[in-house]
Amino acid sequence: MLVSIIPGFVPQNDPELLEKAKASRPKLNKMQLAPLRYLSGDTWEAAEGLKEKELGLGDQVTLDFGRHAVGHVSLDFGIRGSHQDAPLWVRLEMAERLEELEERWDTYRGWISPSWLQREEYHLDSLPCTLSPERRFAFRYVRITVLGVSRKFRVTVNKAEAIAQSAADWDRVPERRFFEKDLQRIYDASLMTLSECTQDVMEDGPKRDRRLWLGDLKLQAETSYISFQSLSVIRRCLYLFAGSRFPDGRLSANVFTDPEIAGDDTYLMDYALFFLDVLCDYVEHAGDREALNDLHETALFQMEYVLERCQNGLISPESAGDFFIDWSDDLDKWAAAQGIVILALNAAERLCGLLGDTERAGDCRKKAEEFRRAARAEFYDPEKGLCLSRGQVSLHTQVFLTLSGVMTPEEGILAIRKAEEVPGSPGMMTPYMHHYYLLALLMAGEKDAALHHMRLYWGSMLEGGADTFFEAWDPEDPTSSPYGGSQVNSYCHAWSCTPARILVEYYPEQYLEMPVEKTQEADT
Amino acid sequence: MLVSIIPGFVPQNDPELLEKAKASRPKLNKMQLAPLRYLSGDTWEAAEGLKEKELGLGDQVTLDFGRHAVGHVSLDFGIRGSHQDAPLWVRLEMAERLEELEERWDTYRGWISPSWLQREEYHLDSLPCTLSPERRFAFRYVRITVLGVSRKFRVTVNKAEAIAQSAADWDRVPERRFFEKDLQRIYDASLMTLSECTQDVMEDGPKRDRRLWLGDLKLQAETSYISFQSLSVIRRCLYLFAGSRFPDGRLSANVFTDPEIAGDDTYLMDYALFFLDVLCDYVEHAGDREALNDLHETALFQMEYVLERCQNGLISPESAGDFFIDWSDDLDKWAAAQGIVILALNAAERLCGLLGDTERAGDCRKKAEEFRRAARAEFYDPEKGLCLSRGQVSLHTQVFLTLSGVMTPEEGILAIRKAEEVPGSPGMMTPYMHHYYLLALLMAGEKDAALHHMRLYWGSMLEGGADTFFEAWDPEDPTSSPYGGSQVNSYCHAWSCTPARILVEYYPEQYLEMPVEKTQEADT
Known about the structure:
homodimer; 524 residues; alpha+beta; Jelly Rolls; nine-stranded antiparallel beta sheet; 15 helices; 20 strands; 38% helix; 20% strand
């Protein structure tokens, strides 16, 4: 459970930086969608017939818009029979997957607010009328249930439409044709996932949280560079984080933008450190020196803050508790945290290089070297051939100590394979963590294994007909949830969009890049 | 169960009459109300402390506005703790009586639409905010339940208010001071009931139906003449009925005004006949010759239509099925229907008198005489000393055959007393029927008995703290309902407002009329 509450917390806002964040607010592209079909009882019917379908008390239809949409629903309700002599009481349920609608929502007792359930009730006093809820939803399916209607009339849905919105620009995406169908599907679903999460900010998930998180932003931005190139949104997000910080200069793990911009009172050390990576990547892709000048001190402060919590080249075990790493209650995070600190030192070196500060860059390089040595001494067991975090073997530990060079790639892949054989070790709970696992395999040159795992893990999400990748996924236990109830799981989640980037970067031989007309310049 | 559905029914509209109905649309007076106290758990707390009360998941408060209100609710929600990181999901339940909130609304399975339950859900994404539902409700109590909220924040109700509306003008009501407290309460509750139902039209009940019904209009108008004198609303209602009729000229039992004016496809013969009474009373009180000229043909047609369904001075037993009389499934309505036809003939005679058509007035008088004789022959059993409707003894039969002069007042009161002793005879289900029962007692000079019954029946509604009179009431079975579930019962219902008129008309010795400054002329 992750619930941080700091009484009296007020973020420190920097009006100049927030002004720049506001100036980079993207335009949302809108698209009108009509349902393709509807489910009545157990039968799918063509959408054309919907307006003839008369609904009475307790009746239900489920509309399928044919793709995932983030946006608004609009329903024209009509009336058949006698004059309306009672309100129409109707429930709408919006779902990203059809399976969500089969869950008993009433029984949800998880620790995340049930207010995220996309379930709304309306009373319509004057039919015919158009119901256009102001709230934004994330959905492919919309279930309409008639909760109340009199015996004198029945209801029809004369027209249904969705207005889908996204700040992602598909015209900028090079057309890539994969030789294998399943990789095409994985690639497409990755970009769809990213597109749906690219809104007014880079959101973690448009169904739940609907908010800018730093750990998600990192992966979104990386995938955006090979696809939508949403530079303006990424710039906006960097300025939002820097513009509303903890009073001591730390970055919040996430930032609210409604009703006002405000950093959350949640600090995650790994997320704060990722700011270094996100800034470097952005500056390198966008050539935005203004952002580099405005934001590098904030970035480097995140590193310094963490280094103060290190001794003898090791992050303190207590501070490791401030790392997210993965949704896993029984994971010992110390060793993985150390790996992330080393990766952040690499990013700091890169940032100093961009600033032309070669001396400080050299310091970072040396520090990283020191931290790798200290980590190897503390965590690596040469006899067992893997790393342990206070005695615990986990994939998380092997992955981050491989990526950070504490083990050589050859040692790393052996360690990962051994760790996979250890019964009862903490499993990887999220596509977020699986992403870093893929990177570790690729670092060791295990391209086939990585592709196999991508197909196994991300591919299996698509088997039930999903259009986007999920927040949490265990193919062995499809209804598992980090929240105590899968009803609030998000099925289009930013941190799961990474396969597209990995395919493009590591598997160019798998696809043909098609020449496309670029209609406009990248959004800077 | 009363559900009339005529496939393809389209009312016959008379644009000229409807224009006059629209021109008589009353101004609604608005009044701002604040809650006096709130219920938290089992304890009533002063309203001042409400804004300090922090609400979390599942918490509930019930506001008491101190009086019945028809109108709108507005709630200012605030937030305590960390920044809002999830929507607030809140349920509002509006109730006329506190007891309504104790009923399990989920279990309602009656034949009236559950959409009348005053229960709404809202998702509020951006706190603080004001929730001001557009829908109108009828309530004294508003229960707020927090269905969803995150662990990071709690909710407060910083301000609550109601805007109550009515077209009734209290300034026109003579102040009457009753010597006995309980009669004062009955009188006050009568006028409160009428005031709450005097809206854009004379509504039957502001919680449920919220619509103009002819049987209710009759009693509302009669009580209005001794109180609010809402002549313009009554005129509007007469024109609405006449302006949107059955294609064959019959009057609908009720008229819709939203989204457009339309007579319902429900015909009740007694209600249609009451139009004669309502028109006569109105013309006598308002001196409105224009209305008399415009509407008398429609009124007299209702009589003619019924007379065509009579033979040998008797309404046909089949047509008696078109009478409402009372909510009573096992009542044989034939004899009571005959009584109402005779009363309508009396009204027709009166109307012809107003028109100066003495000849036709005389015809009506003779017809009434013939119908009384025929009724006496058919229904009165001199040996038993009461009337039977196809062998069935009921109070309804005795009441309407007393009021219509089929029995003498002396015979009538004896018949009523005897009928009351017959075990298993159909009971009176509504204040509407009890009203006609009081009139029959008064016709026989039984003033004490009538007052005693008024106290027993209407008085007992007030014992639980009600501010207004109910639609249906059985003191022996307080949760009984004509609808298969008391959850949809209306607790402020027009047809129950009559005690005030009866007190003023029949019991002047019970009160002192106080001189009042009249601030304006009657609303003509």
